[in-house]
Design goal:
Length: 211
């Protein structure tokens, strides 16, 4: 587990090293560690969802999936881990298709999926902090109306919350582009396009469920 945590932290704070990590450690269990890392992030989101469910609050953002508003956080806690893993595998396959269309020949799906998992860690980490922040406030007795008022009005809470969301979105995109361009599967411009499209597809799938 120590190696898993080390891999996660390195991917979050040094995404520029992801390409080097893929080249040097893929045969030493890197894919398994990246998979376990995704499971750990899924557990973290499930835990914060449970806290939000027990607080009696409901999502403040309109729902896409046909779950009841009152039990949405319960469903989110149950479904988030398989949703996260399946979306990762789907986006890995789609990214491989994009690379193939761009002229890449020698491209391992195993290596690509490990690289994308590493790239997604920064987004998951910073986004989870915003969810944890909200779950703590709910657990301390804050009502949903008070939370909406804080997030809607300029102030320290709105600033911190929006900064976490912006950092999450930008860090995930940057990590994905750095990782895919470092492996030189195709030309740099095509790798940047593939990275941007795969990252966009992934966050859209995640936000179908996550509230």
């Amino acid at each position: 587990m120590g190696r898993v945590i080390k891999t996660i932290l390195r991917a979050i704070f040094r995404p520029d090293k992801n390409g080097q990590l893929l080249e040097s450690q893929l045969s030493s269990g890197l894919w398994t560690r990246t998979f376990i890392g995704l499971i750990l992030f899924g557990l973290l989101f499930s835990l914060t969802s449970i806290f939000q469910a027990f607080s009696g609050n409901v999502p403040a953002i309109p729902l896409i999936l046909p779950f009841s508003l009152e039990n949405y956080f319960v469903w989110q806690a149950v479904l988030f881990i398989p949703w996260l893993v399946l979306s990762w595998l789907l986006v890995s396959w789609l990214t491989r298709v994009i690379f193939r269309l761009s002229g890449a020949k020698r491209l391992s799906l195993r290596q690509l999926s490990a690289g994308l998992a590493l790239s997604f860690y920064p987004f998951l980490f910073w986004l989870w902090l915003s969810h944890f922040f909200t779950a703590v406030l709910y657990s301390l007795g804050m009502s949903q109306k008070e939370w909406v008022d804080l997030i809607s009005n300029p102030g320290w809470f709105q600033t911190v919350y929006l900064c976490l969301i912006i950092i999450a979105l930008l860090s995930g995109w940057l990590a994905t582009c750095l990782t895919l361009t470092a492996r030189r599967w195709t030309k740099r411009g095509k790798s940047l396009l593939a990275g941007s499209l795969s990252y966009l597809a992934w966050i859209l799938i995640i936000f179908i469920l996550l509230r």
